[in-house]
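note to self: dont lose this again. the chain is below, predicted strucutre after it. 618 aa total, dont forget to put it in the shared folder this time
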Amino acid sequence: MTAKEIFEQLNITDELDIIEAKPGKVISHSVMETVCSFANEPGLGGGYILLGAMEDEGSLFPSYIVDEVIDPDKLQSDFASQCGSMFNMPVRPSIKIEQINGKNVAVIKVEELPDNQKPLYFKSEGLPSGAYRRVGPTDHRCTEDDLHVFYADRNTYDKSLVASTSIRDVEETALNRYRILRGKVNPAAEELTFSDAELLQSLGCMENERNGRLSIAGLLLFGKSSSLRREFPMIRADYIRVPGNQWVDDPDDRFSSIDMRGPLILLLYRIVDAIYSDLPKAFRIEDDGLQADSVGLPVKVLREAITNALMHRSYRMHSPIQIIRYDNRIEIINPGYSLKADDKLGTPGSETRNPYIAAVFHETNLAETKGSGIRAMRRLLAASHLAPPTFESNRTDNKFSARLLLHHFLSKEDLQWLEQYAQFELNDNQKRALIFVREVGAIDNPTYRQMSDTDSMKSTMELRHLRELDLLKQRGKGRGTYYIAGSLLITQGEGLTTQAESPITQAKASITQGKGHTTEGETVVTQGRVTKADLPNDLKAEVSNIGIRASKKNLNDCIIKLCKWKELTASELSGILDKGENHIRREYLKPLIDQGKIQYKYPDMIKHPDQAYKTINV
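---
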C-alpha cells in the first residue's frame, strides 16, 4: 500500500489490524511496540505503520491529518538503529519516504516473522511482558496465555499436575456422566471400555502412574466438591439476580446470589437449570392460529454461553464466573480475555487456553463444533426473534463478557416506538442499535458489528449517520469511541410520547428557549463535573499537601478518601490530582480495584459511559 492509500483508509475506517498511524516527529517506544506486534501476530502477515499522521482532535469523527516528517534521513537512521538493537534479535522492516499533499511521511512495512523466530520481544523487558501481539487495531503486551501460541507448548496450564491429588479425588457421578454423554455421541468409542484410571489418563486428566496425580483439567472436570474447595477455593460460578436493568448500589438490598461449585461436567447443568427456571417464557401464535411456539431464550443458547465461559476462562485467576440476571438481559463475565480477536468472534476456528477441558466438552456435544458456537447462538436467537449476542473482551482487566438480551427485537411494541423516527428511514441494523441503547445505555463499533454482522467500514458509516441525525451522541475518541442516546432519542423509562411531546419537538423547543446551544447541528447540554474547588476543606488540604512527588502510597490513600466522599470518574480524579487520566487508570485505579479497596460504579459494564469509582466500605 502507498502512503496515500493508507491515509485514505484511515479516514474511512480509523486504524485497522494491519494499519497503525503515528506522529512523524520521533521514533517513539509506541512505534517499536507496533513493530513487535506486527512481527509476532500469527496469520496476520505483518502490517503498515504510517509515520506522519495524527488524529484531528477538532473533528467530530475519527479523522487524520498530516504531521510532516521534518528530517526523513534522521528518522530512517533512528528507526534502523532501534530495530537492530532493542529486540532479542535484529529485525529489518522496510521504510520509504513518500508525500501526501506535498508533505513528507514515512511508510513502514513490517513482515510477520517465521514461526521459528517468534516471539520477538524487548531485551530489556524479557518474556512474557516484553513481547507484543496485534489484537484488532491495538498492540497488547503478551501474557503467559499467549506464549503457547508461539511455542506450540503441549503442556498447557490445564495439563499441569495438582499436588496431593489422586483418583480418590474423582467424583464417580461426574465420570459416569462423561461415559453416558460420550456413548450417545459414539456408542463404539474405544475409551468407553477403559477403566476409570485409563480413561482419565487418555483424556489428559491424570498422569500415567499408579495412584498418579490429577491434572488441573482432571480435577476441574471430574473432581469432588470437597477437593475442588481445597485446591481452588475461589473457582466457582455465582448466579446473581439483580432487580431492574442496572446494578443496584444499595448495600442492604443489592441482589440475591447463588454460589455454585462442583465438577464442570455436572456444574454446567446446575447453572443452566438455575438460570432457565428463572427466565420468563413467551409464546407466539402464527396467523393460522393452529400452533403456539415458545419464543423464550432458547436453552441451547444459554447452555452454549455457559459452556464457553467454563471452557475458555482463565483458571490461573482465582475468581468466580459471574452470571448476572437483570430484568432485560443476562451478562456472563468470566476471568480471562478472549484469545481470539473481537472482530473474528463467530468466524470458523477457535483458540482455547484450556484444550483438555475443551476436548471433553466437544467430545460429549456439550459444546458446538470448534469455532461454531457463536454462529449457532446467533442463528437460534434470530429464529426466536431475540437480539444477537454481544461480547466484550478486555485484556487490561483480563475479563470476557457475553450479553444476552431477553428483549424481543423489532416486536410490535418496538415498531410502535420506532415509528417516532420513521422520517429518518433507518435500516434494520440502525433500528436494532437504537433499541440496544435504550435497553443497555450505550453501544460501540464492535458491539454494532456483532449485532448486525457487518464489517467495520459499514458499521462506522451507519453509526455516523445516527450521530448526524442526533439520535446518538458520540463519546470518546479513536479506539475508545462509543455512543449514548442523543437528544432526539427517547431512552429507558421515558415511554412513548404524543406527537406534540415527541423528542424532535422537545429538542427544537430546547434550542429556541436557550436551554442549549448548537455546534454543527449538535444540541449541547452542559453537564456537572467535580473539580478541586468542589472538595470539602479537609480533602482540599490533603490534595494540596500531596505535592508533585508524592509517594504511591500517599496517592493511593488520597484516592481511597476521595472515592469514599463521592463516586468519581477517572477524568475527575485526573483533574483533582493533576495527573494524566491514563496514568491514573493504569497505575492507581486498576491496582486498587485488584486489591479490593475500590470498585466500579457499574461493575457489569466496565466501559459504561458514566463509569466511576467508589471506595469499598470494610
